[in-house]
Design goal:
This is 4-hydroxyphenylacetate 3-monooxygenase. It is a single chain. By secondary structure, this protein is α+β, with helices and mostly antiparallel strands. The chain is 43% helix and 14% strand. The protein is built from 14 helices and 14 strands. The chain has helices at 12-18, 42-54, 84-101, 113-121, 130-143, 241-244, 268-275, 281-311, 317-342, 355-380, 414-428, 431-442, 447-460, 463-467; strands spanning 25-27, 30-31, 65-66, 73-74, 147-152, 171-175, 179-190, 197-203, 215-219, 225-229, 248-259, 263-265, 345-346, 351-352. β13 and β14 (351-352) form a beta hairpin. The longest helix has 31 residues, at 281-311.
Length: 473
Amino acid sequence: MASAPAGRPQTGSDYLASLDDGRVVIHDGVPVERVAEHPAFAGTAATIAALYDTLHDDDSGVPLVPTADGTGLTHPFWTVPHSRDELRVQRDAIAAWQRRTHGWVGRTPEFMACVITSMAAHAPFFGRFEPNVRDMLARDQRDVTHYAQALVNPPVDRDLPPDEVGDVFLHVVRETDEGVVIRGAKAVVTGAATAQRLLVSHFGGEVQTEDFAIAASVPVASAGIRIYTRGIPAHADAPLSSRFTEHDALVVFDDVLVPWEDVFIRDPETMLAFNKGAVGWNVRLVFQATTRLEAKLERIAALAVRATEIMGTSELRGVQASLGELIAYRDTVAALRDAMIEQAVPSGDSLGPGPQAAMAFAAYGPDAYSRMRVNLQTMLASAFAHLPVPLDSLGSEHVAPIEPLLRGSGGADARERLEVMGELWDAVGTGFGARHELYERSYFGQPERMHLGILAGAKATGRIDAWQGPLVE
């Protein structure tokens, strides 16, 4: 990353060059020679590179703040917050990036800062690995390292403890003077093919033995790592999937050596407490996710309003009600995120977002997104699926005679109609759109689990007892 100006994170060119590191990516069963140039990954890689370039453009609207050691500048979400004002700066910085991608890239380079800054704010929690946690933040804060999160076990034998699925699940096979050697697989590692590092850990199921208690930072190009992805068609006339597709990868670790300096957890008790939110990373995760979803819903709402004008249905009462519900969904997401700031609580050496609003969103968001998608399908019906010709065919000899017939209402010509409806179709009707519904529904795991956590938290904090007080006469 030597080409980045002193004191600033990597540039877009640095990031793209870092992907040519010998990583092993198998896409649709075929090895990928150069990830940044492969049709399945080039659009997303270019999008992420453009985000890095905003950190070197003083007119981009993306604020920068000093690193912890004061020697450089970084994205604000990569710092440990100590006040509500700092949380607001972090919110605005996340939003500035997310509005550039309209919220369609879940794993932008600030995403994993939610975990790493939370770990640093609770560094003593990690015992003998405390220095490793602090060093990780210093390194990745400086570079704004692009991480993917490798947490989820493959969906097999989930009726068994993880320790009994050693033929599949990630575990430590031996320790050496140099580090730990890990073997097994992680599923749904979103964006692994275009990431620089993996944060490897366990989530879901309580590990019982040290062999399965492992959390570490691992370079994607480490010897023994193979990344398997499948294609989501991304042709030129699919404006979202061609730029923003993130592949959910199966990552296989075949005796990968992880140096001791990159290891953070090696015992079951710490692993369990980490997963249960002892360091606050799950709340910081919601803080980033709500800001991303806010940007996505803003874009969808704007397109939906224009689409009804193009259809000539914008004055129908039912259509207006559906549009109002969509905007209310966006406003609810933003309000819960801002409530997290107002309800902020001490969290280690930081001020963390409020957990009550965070858990409320995690419980509310999945069903709301699915309802939004159904409302769009009902409101726009066949109109956004009626795309008889590709946008780039307008003006061709075969299409020119019918181009006047492709116009919309509300002053829209054929080009605008195809652009608006084409983007909405990609957002809702294609494999890209369907994957995003699954992504939003599954973002925090099983919804029932969130509801159980909310009830347990309300009991533990005494809120239920307070609500059960005597009637006031």
